[in-house]
Amino acid sequence: MSAEANGGARMPGWGKALITIAVLVAAATLIWSQLPRGAFPTDLDRIGQGQPVVVVVRDIAYVTGAEVMDRLNQVRPDYADRIEFMAAHHGRPEGQAFARDHGVRDGAVVLFDAQGHRIGALEAPETEAEIRELLDRAAPR
User: How far is it, in rounded angstroms, from Cα 96 to Cα 80?
Assistant: First the structure.
């Protein structure tokens, strides 16, 4: 029995191609949005090695950490020569240990001085100004 006999119309080939392209674009956009932002190193052993360090906690199951990483990337050029930017990925054992040890979760920003002493933290900062205020504690502009 044909599709017309069943009461339905057949979709033209170009319509199927358009739907396929739309699905592929949507999938690619979703995948792209989940990629890491800004190449933050994850070697947390560098904390206390002579330069202030700011660490963002990132859990790929949530969007807050990705949004905070975007905000950090906006201020990063102004501080990159004075503060090292790092990430503690919650999907890795050392990232989980970091989050547990400091009582923080996805999107938190923790600042350490050059000797490795914690000098401040923010839970999911919403503005660049909040981040700058924290970073200025370790490396004033």
Answer: 25
Sequence-ordered strand ranges (E) for the chain: 53-58, 84-89, 109-112, 118-122
CA atoms within 13 A on the CB side of 113: 7
Q: Which two tokens stand for residue 22?
A: 């739309």
Q: Rounded distance, CA 9 to CA 87, Å?
A: 54
- In this structure, the dihedral spanned by the alpha carbons of residues 50, 140, 75 and 110, taken in order and rounded to 10 degrees, is 50
Give the model confidence (pLDDT) of 92-135 as tens digits.
Answer: 999 999 999 999 999 999 999 999 999 999 999 999 999 999 99
Terminal Cα distance for the chain, rounded: 76
